[in-house]
Amino acid sequence: MSTIAEIKKTTQAKMDQSIAAFKNNLTKIRTGRANPALLDTVQVDYYGSMMPISQVANVSLLDARTISVQPWEKGMGAKIEKAIRESDLGLNPASMGDLIRVPMPPMSEERRKEMTKLVRHEGENAKIAIRNLRRDANEHVKKLVKDKQASEDDQKRSEADIQKVTDRHIAEIDSMVAAKEQEIMAV
């Protein structure tokens, strides 16, 4: 049987994982700015197996609105270009010799608003995950009290501690959402 301290530690770790997953989801949401992480989800055919672009080419920023992709092998350029074009990111890469330039199309006001809605939705999902972890932790503690392995005072203390951790994580999600919205709305 686990102790209250173990429950708190596990809950904290799971909440941190939720934040990390949320951060990862945010990098995939496009802003007007170029971000090499945008191409992380694009897979390219490399001798019959699908690989992320970052494993067959050097992905970096050319300027604020352009990602450059430098394939490590001569024959990969066309395949990488095709993979980027066919991804659901709406990007239009252009080859310049060995270098592939991926310009970020400017986003319309309507598209920016859609993206901020998406960011808020992702943030809400992350908060729900955090609250579910809080509920699970509190139920574990209640079970300890019921099984006479902890006192009701311990339960009250741990619920207060778990609430503090929950509040901290939710505040972090809110600030990440706000920062991403600013990034999207910046022209």
Automatic annotation (TrEMBL):
Q: Which PANTHER family match?
A: MITOCHONDRIAL RIBOSOME RECYCLING FACTOR PSEUDO 1, RIBOSOME RECYCLING FACTOR
* Region of interest (Disordered), ranges: 144-164
Q: What does this protein do?
A: Responsible for the release of ribosomes from messenger RNA at the termination of protein biosynthesis. May increase the efficiency of translation by recycling ribosomes from one round of translation to another.
Q: Locate the Ribosome recycling factor domain: which residues?
A: 22-185
Does Protein biosynthesis count among this protein's keywords? yes
What are the alphabetically sorted keywords of the record? Cytoplasm, Protein biosynthesis
UniProt subcellular location: Cytoplasm
Q: List, alphabetically, the Gene3D superfamilies matched.
A: 3.30.1360.40, Ribosome-recycling factor
Task: Specify the protein name.
Answer: Ribosome-recycling factor
Q: Name one GO cellular component term.
A: cytosol
- Gene that specifies this protein: frr
Q: Which family does it belong to?
A: Belongs to the RRF family.
Domain of life, per the record?
A: Bacteria
Question: One GO MF term, please?
Answer: ribosomal large subunit binding
Report the source organism: Ramlibacter tataouinensis (strain ATCC BAA-407 / DSM 14655 / LMG 21543 / TTB310)
GO biological process terms, alphabetically, are: cytoplasmic translational termination
